[in-house]
Amino acid sequence: MHKLTKAALTCHGLGRCFISEKHVSAVKIISRGLVSAEHGDVYDVIISGGGMVGSAMACSLGMEPNLAGKKILLLEAGNKKVMDRVPEAYSTRVSSISPSSATLLSGIGAWEHITEMRCKPYKRMQVWDACSDALITFDKENLQEEMAYIVENDIVVASLTKQLDSMSDNVQVEYRSKVVKYRWPRPHHMAESIPWVQVTLANGKTLQTKLLIGADGPNSMVRRELGIPTVKWNYDQSAVVAVLHLSELSDTESSLVWSTSHQHAEELLELDEESFVDAINSAFWNNENQSELIETAGSLFRGTLSTMMPSAGSPRQLPPSVAGIGPKTRVMFPLGMGHASEYIRHRVALIGDAAHRVHPLAGQGANLGFGDVACLTQLLSQAAFNGKDLGAMQHLLEYETERQRHNLPMMVAIDLMKRLYSTNSVPVVLLRTLGLQATNMLPALKEQIIAFASK
Amino acid sequence: MYCRKVGRPLLGLCGPGRSYSRAAVCRQRALWLRRSQHQALSRHNSTRSPSQSTVDPDEVKRFQSLASKWWDEQGEFAALHAMNDLRVPFIRDNLLNVHRAHHPGKPLAGLRILDVGCGGGLLTEPLGRLGANVLGIDPVENSIGTAQLHASYDPDLRDRVAYQACTLEELSADGAEEQEPVADRFDAVVASEVVEHLADLETFAFCCSHVLKPGGSLFITTINKTNLSYALGIVVAEQLLHIVPSGTHDWEKFISPVDLERLLESHGFSVQCVQGMLYNPVSGGWSWTNSTAINYALHAVKPRDSLQPDRAEESCPHPEDHAAATHS
Questions:
Q1: Do the interacting molecules here have an ipTM over 0.90?
Q2: EC number(s) in its UniProt entry (chain B) (predicted)?
Q3: Is B128 labelled as part of a ligand binding site?
Q4: Which pTM value belongs to this model?
Q5: Which one, out of A215, A319, B199, B217, has a CA that is 20 to 30 A from the CA of A190?
Q6: Which of A11, A18, A34 is the mutation pick for testing B, counting most B CBs within 10 A?
Q7: Per-residue pLDDT averaged across B55-65, rounded?
């Protein structure tokens, strides 16, 4: 048994202290206060990267009631993106926001800002094959519900910034803060080191956090510093983006993403506006890639299908003709695919492009990121309600499993589509022509595809 | 929690040696003393144990090896870490039934909880994170040291979680001497995986009743005394699968829910619910179950001073919404 010695501390008559002694030595504490005091406060969550996905994560955490009172910080290396008035000209980078992403954004209060600014819902998607007459149409029944929304990336970020401004007591944001160094915590059974993640900024400040969320894009520093192996390759393609003025489809303007070889992309950028418009039109209307064999096979197949399923198939819409392009809107960026083999480590989680980078052909990149945000927020909220340490592996592993299960099939599908449509060789074209026509005739299959893409 | 049986073998373990310079030791001690005085000044009614820190290199080594035992979530205490998934919601939800949560994000704010047999603080810390003021006590000083070390890193916990190396009898005895006002007593006492290590349950129940406020809650998780609990809880868990360090439990000390209920009710408690818990060694997770044959959790309430015991609810509000009370 221990001898208890009661020592009354007469410090303003407050409290009582018990000092327990053993015969040989007393109970020891090693004070870590020394080290913590040097480095300042410990945050509960630091999000590195204030793009669409990082800002959405910050908003989402800030609005969670179970995380009220937690210290959340968003670090963005760039400037604050404020948009007092929506600019007349469209910006070139746009994203297709799926209904579930729209639900997330409206849950965090950013969607109303977006709709106030500018967004375009669409109800139908049609895909033409350059090498044959095959096409596929996606639309929701009766054209009533929106399939998805096209929103400029700048508008999404500005709306999220506006929302973050309104919750400044829950979430701190620091702009122009570039991170230069990360120090990772040792595993918990090394008792003498600081157990938190340490983030050193360019201005010399060091911050500590219980959980670091890496939302710093496809060339993520967080992922690199952790040494997480990433499966990645560059497609031999670049994307040229531009704003088009159409003669028909939409009100006035439309967005273009043209994926082609690097060389061709550079050539396209160098063309003057008229020639560029011609290039686009010829790409839509040109028949020279179609071979006789494929035409015959295609029409035969179509004939067969329509006798089997006479009612299926939506009305064909002809490809658009482009009248002009928005001035100075042409930009090019390289395309690649990347997938981090692990999304998490002890006290770290990757979200958005830092974890997975896809080809823009399906417009899914931002949606995958928003899906990460929704999943991780929900798991962190539950963990906080159970009194857990936010950086603990148990719920981070759940996040990784759930998101990898969702993201990997999507990425594989996009990559396959990209490879399938990158070739002019006859057998592949024949295969995809017939496949596309068949799929177009099967509404059940198309609904499955839409449902998967909208999750 | 695992008491001296585990403590003693662990005492002999030494981590890699470390030498401290005398200056560094003195500096740390001075800083610690200053900090502890500051904290004593700012704490009104909580009891604290600001022990001396004559930093002894051997003790440091012992802490290092102990820290790796308690807080290694895949180590020897993995099953205890996993049990938090059941016991924290159990405690939280039952307390929330009585005390409405006023602070989002801190549902247990304003409540004082005593964690008896806290060990390395595995259950103490989550309760602290939920906003309660928690005092963890354990007779094994090394465990208390480990717990204090672990909690000291987290600024949230430093203010809300305190540890003391003593037994429940000592704590309640001191309270009795000083005529502890009701406000100093606890809203809840948690004795998780403790009752099966105690020699004298009558005294335990008496002391719990003494340190609890009227209307306060007592939460116990322990092991039933059945053939099944011997087979699975001792033979399989200790000797075959090594889920629990060998020699931790003594079957004679297990108690059945019926006996425990009778004991508690003889001390004036009113048992609100009993619920069985089941450990899955494959997944490493716990789940609620209807059978209390092996592990079970119990919630009892000390009646208020008026004649009727304060019954918050008849049924046991645990996370999966099962009905309450099956005794095996």
A1: no
A2: 2.1.1.64, 2.1.1.-, 2.1.1.114
A3: no
A4: 0.79
A5: A215
A6: A18
A7: 51
